[in-house]
Amino acid sequence: MLPDENELPKSYYYAKKLMCPFGLEYKKIHACPNDCVLYRNEYEELEECPRCGKSRYKRKSCNAGMKGPPTKVLWYLPIIPRFKRLFSIPKDAKNMRWRAEGRKKNGLLKHPADSPGWKNIDMKFRAFGDEVRNLRLGLCTDGMNPFGTLSTQHSTWPVLLVIYNLLLWLCTKRKYVMLSLLITGPRQPGHDIDVYLEPLVDDLRKMWDEGVSVYDAHKNEMFLMRAALMWTINDFLAYGNLSGYKNKGYKACPICIDDTPNVYLEHYGKDVYVRTRRLLRRDHPYHRQKKAFNGKVEEGVAPRPLSGHEVYGQVKGIPTVFGKTSKPLDPHALFKKESIFWKLEYWKEHDVRHCLDVMHIEKNVCDAVVGTIMGIHGKTKDEKSARLDLEAWGVRPELWVQPKEGKAKVMEKVREDGGNKRKGERKGKGISVSKKKDEKMYLPPACYTLSKEEKRKFCACLYDIKVASGFSSNMKRFVSLNRELKLTSMKSHDCHMMMQVFLPIAIRGILPKHVREAITSLCLFFNTICSKVLDPFTLDALLANVVVTLCKFEMYFPPSFFDIMVHLVLHLVREIKMCGPVFMRWCYPFERHMGTLQHKVRNPSHPEGSMIQGIVAEEIGNFVAEYVAVA
To answer: Beta-strand (E) ranges in 361-478?
Structure first.
């Protein structure tokens, strides 16, 4: 069956040994179970953690000198040999030059290379920018459950790299998304993730300071390759872990920082982020309106985002002690650590270092809008506590909590009104809440409240939607047409399609015009920023429109609606200006890649090891197939 002098390996062990010459091996680095240190460099020979005293091994064998398995392991796949592999294939080496030789430059934002952030690095570091083959990288990390629905407690954290030198339709393809680190579970690393990023950051520093000699198969020459990390891509919780900023509480916005427009709601018990009016022009009439907003005149001005050098001045020298057993030295500080990325020389030159993920922001906003207008339990922002805060502010008295009237009083009021509903009253019933057994409270219906008949029309519209195969999920699976009349179990992409297409269609004719226009305008904003091509000269008008839209939301929706995710919508246009289109910087391709990692788990007792073995075997197989085809 095989050609002469070709034999199959005798065992799987010998087959794995054949992979070593390709330079795609991986490293197992022992770690402290409390995330204090990695056992590398000066800690390599230690058997106990120098900070918490925890043993490096789970147990010791009965035989003298034999040690048991490590308590925790970091799996590291070196990135330098894998970049060399890409340049050894002529087709990939040619694609690495596309952003300078094949990209059309017409002033539109289609690729990160069109953005000011990319051009800023070229201008500040001329030697780096002159070599078109130098790499520009993006980093994404998030927690995943390798066991699917079998366990909800296990959290494994892969660290993925994406190469922006490639064609824009190849950057986020599965072949070019590289797994560099795999942080084992079951607990998430939290802000101690810097401990596990050390090997990767060391390689990034080497590739920037010294460079790596690489053979270019397309040009048939050797060159000195360098690389720069442009930004990270994460959900908002991981944003805080990587940046070191405390993105919770009264100063939760990492862009506004000290100028975060927070207001604490006494009855709702949470911080909300209103005062969107301060972003309007100074002569806008919304500034002087009191009753329509929070009862006050808005005299604030729009905050100025800090530059990289200004942020570094705030975090420089912050004492940090890693480990689950350590406590923050200053619990009131806005930054809880000096991020490991500041060790990169060029990191302070970036105006945007950590990107806001549009995928998660859009999902949270969609859940808040749909949950509030439909009154879905657990997702609505319109509750008794929210109405009590309106009463505390002294605005919108028609929505304050009222005692529920008996049947006799209701019939008497109807007779006084001539048997007709009062002018301006919304259709349907309000919300009944019980404070005590002998006292029932009533929440009057708001302009955004759907009656039961309107809910039925809304759900029926979504239930009857038919789209082309592969366009979106089947909406019938999320719609409940029984007595509950609600939407459930929508994933991120389902919320994306809801905001982009379905929601403006479903609310036609069932909400007042001013509320319907505000929701449709917000949906149009998300639809615009997700475009593949953007004109930078239209972004200022886009920002002005979304500010007015959110001001209208403040006029119609309760203050509890404006959590940090709604506030972050205001900063998305700025990041588009600096970094380019959204579809190159959101988590959809990385979430799909994590799904492929989940399918590689063959041994449930060692899920991370199964993933690493599967990834290495897949990459080597692809490399051999392409290399042999060229040869």
So the answer is: 402-403, 431-436, 439-443
